[in-house]
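Structural prep section.
Before we set up the soaks we want a predicted structure of the protein with S-adenosylmethionine in place, mainly to decide which crystallisation condition to try first. Input record follows.
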Amino acid sequence: MNDDERSMAGRPGTGRVGQVKEVTSLSNPIIKDIKALSNKKDREESGTFMAEGLKLVIDALELGWTIRTLVYAKAAKGKPLVEQVAAKTVARGGLVLEVSEKVLSSVTRRDNPQMVVGIFEQQWQRLEDLHPEQGQTFVALDRVRDPGNLGTIIRTADAAGASGVILVGESTDPFSLETVRATMGSIFAMPLYRAVPNDFLAWSRKSGGQIVATHLAGSVDYRTIDYRKKPTILLMGNEQSGLPEQLAGAADRLARIPQEGRADSLNLAVATAVMLFEARRHLLALEAK
Ligand code: SAM
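Run finished without errors. Recording the tokens verbatim:
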């Protein structure tokens, strides 16, 4: 916290006079703009997205994400942590809205909304600037469709110590409300990259890493792969159709997770978790030596 933020946080309600707007009307134009963020087109045009919950907003500010607007419920007024994030938002040039519960419910489309919502600028990293290092693991997802799967994968990649998630081809939006919810805050911790398949392949050839693609017809048991000799890019296929030949054919290893039972495949997020924690197990074993 800088001096401005500290002085404002220390005097609840003061220092922000005139900078906190009270909103009770659903037809307020700023509220309409925030509600429009449920559409991908509006998120792309504004380059912003919405995240719910005080802890998430605090974490995002600590990690240096740019907040455009902070929205909090009237009932949260005066709570020290809410006052602190409001002060930080103002000090960083953002807008603070104090709203009725009805407005907050309509913004989040929930009956029992979180008390605090933040509108943040989206952050994408440039794949051409990514130079994987020894011991790092990345997840590359081919045309991931399901927001819940993508959110769970971002959360799991964070928990498994991965260094980034690369979206290959036309994918669901990581900044949709559903995906952000499913990441449980990891959206702010996990670097995100995107590329069309040809650019991804061109990058991976120069990256110095090994592509370990997962495939139901994979010839290699995923446990026998050496995840330590090079940085690893775990390449996962689309939920319906799996990996196309263009991507599978470019892999250094085609891995299979042996299964029992009647299901012909694992859920994409589950398969990604299995791969990530196997890679982590290998890397931790190396550290322990
Ligand atoms: N019908 C699809 C197919 O034929 O590939 C199933 C796709 S599966 C739901 C989604 C992705 O999870 C797959 O493309 C693969 O990357 C990964 N996957 C799921 N189960 C797997 C397994 N047993 N072995 C290797 N990869 C698996």
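Observations: Residues 3-121 form a domain with the 60s Ribosomal Protein L30; Chain: A; fold (CATH 3.30.1330.30).
Flagged for discussion at group meeting.
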